Amino acid sequence: MTQHPATKLRGYLVSWCVLLALLLVTLGTAYLPLGWVNTAINLMISVTQAAIVLLFSMHLRSAHPTLRIVAASGFFGIAILIGLSLTDFLTR
Amino acid sequence: MASAAPPLAPQFDDVEQQRDASKLGIWIFLATEILFFGVLFAAYAITRVNHPAAFAAGSRLTDVSLASINTAVLLTSSLTMALGVHAAQSGTPRATVGWLAATVALGTAFLVVKAMEYRVDYIEHLVPTVNFFYPGPQSGQVELFFYLYFVVTGVHALHVFIGVAVISVIAYMAWNNTFSPEYFTPVDLTGLYWHLVDIIWLFVYPLLYLISRS
Questions:
Q1: Per-window interface: B 48-67 vs A, CB < 8 A
Q2: Which secondary-structure segment (H or E) carries A6?
Q3: The complex's ipTM?
Q4: How far apart are CA B202 and CA B207, in angstroms?
């Protein structure tokens, strides 16, 4: 909110460049024969990209804590949903 | 130039409180959207854990180049949307309209590429219940992958379509000088929705298109 407009604009441009670079990395590494590590790398890059969009484009970096908690709650819900489901399927 | 002091609803003390309430509202909605897609990702995780080979085979049949182009298109549309919100906040309606129009164009481009992809899937007999045919082993499990592929990308494309429609309306409002540095909440909230649709795609892309490419 209190950020200087020019700083904000540069933030958008830099994060766009980083996001596109990460897209190339995730696409490129997918062609390396690494087995399950491919998916781990892809997901780590996706999480990084999502964090960039959340913090910069969606302004969570400077947002009120209430907003951050609400935003986190959705992802927390997914983590429980997928995590607890897989404790069953991965241990059969 | 930019008209209208922001209309202050009677339940709020001031404009800032009203703006915060709107933001909280859209974030609660976005959290439900995250959970909505979360169910699909959970279905994906369970099915893939049970049939890893079939998912690898299915993923190799998807069009990775079109999907990669679409990812870049969507990331760029997120940038133009952010610039549109910034322009609305700065009280420059013409720039706002321009950036929002660019976002609409990029969103539409995404949908066109998606349609091209679906067309190729149809020609290659990859559409479950319509014409699915896979000659290799585990054909039923590969079909499961394509069920998830069409449901996830279809529901996501529907979100993009809704986004394009809403941004068009917002651009029209900006054209009519509805927004000012004191009142740009509709642009801001639409932007948050658009960025979330972008984030969801950032997970859909590697999980559907990049399994076992080597």
A1: 49-50, 64
A2: helix A5-29
A3: 0.93
A4: 9
Average pLDDT, rounded, for chain B: 94
Rg (CA), chain A: 17
pLDDT digits (tens, 9 = 90+) for B136-160: 899 999 999 999 999 999 999 999 9
Exposure class string for B162-181: b at 16+ Cβ within 10 A, else e? ebbebbbebbebbeeebbbe
DSSP state of B48: H
Strand partners, A21: none
Q: Note the pTM of the prediction, 2 decimals.
A: 0.94
| Model pLDDT, residue B212 | 85
In this complex, do A86 and B20 lie within 8 Å of one another by their Cβ atoms?
Answer: no
pLDDT, one tens digit per residue, over B47-83 is 999 999 999 999 999 999 999 999 999 999 999 999 9
Are B61 and B124 in contact by the 8 Å Cβ rule? The answer is yes
Domains defined along chain B, listed by start: 15-209 (1.20.120.80)
Is residue B157 within 8 Å of residue B114, measured between CB atoms? yes
Which residue, among B117, B33, B138, has the nearest Cα to B73 in the 3D structure? B117
Cα→Cα distances A21→A28, A58, B72, B88, Å: 10, 20, 10, 28
- Residue B35 touches partner A, C-beta closer than 8 Å: yes
A86 touches chain B (CB under 8 A): yes
Using the beta-carbon criterion (under 8 Å), do B68 and A23 form an inter-chain contact? Answer: yes
Interchain pair B45, A86: CB under 8 A: yes
Residue B120 contacts residue B211 (beta carbons within 8 Å): no
> What's the 3-state SS for B165-192?
HHHHHHHHHHHCCCCECCECHHHHHHHH
Share of chain A above pLDDT 90, in %: 80
Cα radius of gyration (chain B): 20
Q: How far is B63 from chain A (nearest CA, A)?
A: 13
* H/E segment holding residue A45: helix A36-52
